[in-house]
Amino acid sequence: MPVDVLSVTLRALSFLTLFQAGGIALFLAPREKLPNTEGLLRRMGILAALFAAVFLLAEYLLQAGRMSGELGGVLDPALQGIVVRSATSVTLSWQLVGLALVACGLRRAGMRGGIAGVIGAVLLVVSFSFVGHTSKDPLRWLLSLVLLAHLSLVIFWYGGLLPLYLVSSHEPPPTAAWVVQQFSARAIWLVPALALAGLILATLLLPNLAALRRPYGELLIAKVAGFCALMPLAAFNRWRFGPALQRGDVAAGRRFRQVVVAEFALLATILCVTAVMTTFYSPES
């Protein structure tokens, strides 16, 4: 059990840092200069990419330990050979390449850096299609496409919250208001698309309604509850605090950031629940 707990902890941490690194790359790619925050965001994105690589490698090494049920299994060459020949190795390779491109893209400003960062973020999203429940389903290609859409929306939303917080607190009000408005204009389509993609995945993966009473289904319900809790927060920022920020309301900026922090915490929790789901459970059992 300790090796399982350590493994799921590393997976949760890798999700949080990987999506953050990719999200910062996507956030900065189309932006004009952000004089007060761009350098900080680039450093934070690179650091997140480095941490994500460390967490991914550590979790990968622990796969052999999970097979044996103890940490000593990490040193078993036969078990490590099984891991090396599995789809997990393919996923890790794509993720490490994606993280390297994200880090390289964030190291340099300009179009080339932005393109490298976006390609890296795309590779991070695609890497999840090689393992997990969607990769073994008869409708694999349909599920993979829906999964890619779902994860792309998550990385955009979760990965953009920290930059939004920093931009709204450190950039001049006109710049902050413009960035918030641009993000909100894209995000208005994000919520229904994210909900639709999640619904399609659940419908195709769950064998029947009885599965909702098993651990996988219960965790899925917890994710849906977290998503529902996000709705009023996103609505507040989209329709109330965001426009007030554009009007130069200083107090609205503080409230806007409080809501962003709540959104970030909820999405981070949902990613952690996803780590538990994908580590221990499947829709069928």
Structure report:
With 285 residues, the chain is mainly α. The chain has 2 domains: 1-131; 136-285, Four Helix Bundle (Hemerythrin (Met), subunit A) (Up-down Bundle), CATH 1.20.120. Helix content is 80%, strand content 0%. The protein is built from 10 helices and no strands. The protein has helices at 2-28, 38-68, 77-84, 87-107, 111-127, 140-170, 173-187, 190-205, 215-246, 250-280. Helix 1 packs antiparallel against helix 5 (111-127), helix 5 (111-127) crosses helix 6 and helix 6 (140-170) packs antiparallel against helix 8. The longest helix is centred in the last third of the chain and has 32 residues, at 215-246. The radius of gyration is 20 Å and the shape is globular.
- Low-confidence parts, pLDDT < 50 over ≥5 residues? none
Could you give the order of the helices and strands?
HHHHHHHHHH
- Strand portion, in percent? under 5%
Per the CATH scheme, the topology name of the largest domain is: Four Helix Bundle (Hemerythrin (Met), subunit A)
Distance between the termini: 19 Å
